[in-house]
Request: fold
Amino acid sequence: MKKSSRLTLTGGVQSMFFEQFILENAKRFDVRGYMRKLEDGRMEIFLEGDKSKVDEMAAICKRGTQHTLIRKVEEKEERFQDFKDFKVVKI
Reply:
């Protein structure tokens, strides 16, 4: 079963290290989508793939690294868009 989920993280994130952490885990779990830093400083992560893998990846995103201080997480189920890979988008 396929699933798409959008996470919005609020808190202290060291972008370069957090991005690498998310990229490595997306590859490990074969999850596709993107992540980007929003203009207000929050991180948006769009995940899609097999339901169990998206759920595992979402848990990793919510936990972050040892240098991440995540204060709030918003998660919303989204329409499946069939991304082909996982990318970091710069705006």
Summary: The domain at 2-75 is CATH 3.30.70.100 (Alpha-Beta Plaits). DSSP finds two helices and five strands in the chain.
